[in-house]
Amino acid sequence: MKEVAADLIMFFIIALVSIFAAVMVMEAEDIFHAALFLALLFTSIAGVYILLTAEFIAAIQILVYGGAVVVLILFAIVLTNRAGKVGEQSLKNLLMRTAAIIGFVALLVQPILKTPWPNEMIETTGLNTYAVGYSLFTDYVIPFEVVSLALLSALIGAVYLSKREVGQ
Amino acid sequence: MIPLIYYLVFSSVLFAIGAYGVLTKRNAVRVLMAIEIMMNAAIINLVAFSVYMPYNNISGQVFALFAIAIAAAEAAIGLAIFIVIFRVHGTIDISEIRRLRG
Q1: What is the pTM of this model?
Q2: Domain B4-101 architecture
């Protein structure tokens, strides 16, 4: 019984931190701070994956999102103008914007609450990484190769896009 | 045990915040951050369903891996495009870029 309570408390802490970080990503004055809050958000989402007993996804989340994507975004912020003119939104519409977000959430949550969901987590044997790897290299080996091709073409495309202007 | 609904509501909130950012922000990099938040909300749903559904319970996590890879590629391409736009136009304010409007 105590484990259940600890689970719930951890989930609520992580959820509150995540939502706070997401709001700060949107509303921070300096976009550099927004990128750092984005790192906090991605890391706390990795905590959600650990609560879901998906440890491998959590590790990948920290490596790819918390590491690579955040560093990419920081480089993009430094390379474009950081002054940014982000203070374009006045605070007088804050209430209306919050109401719009809450209304949209209500719209999304409505069908979720009406649907009967299974409420028991599948008992896992603690071999999450093994199971993911086995499935990835047997059932999903073709999509895996396609994703590797997509990553390669994205890499070449990014290099081509950034290099072309230098040549001109 | 945490009910599945909690995860779904949590990802709905994240998705709504991301959608709000995509619709209202004018700095292109911040719009890309909002898109990343929305993709993360979708991936949370994938993993939560894969853990709670009583059959074939690892496919959702494999697709979450694919989604993460595609999101990383999308971020790289998007930021390269923003840097090129910044070199050409001198700004990445998406309300001031009207080149394609003709």
Answers
A1: 0.88
A2: Orthogonal Bundle (1.10)
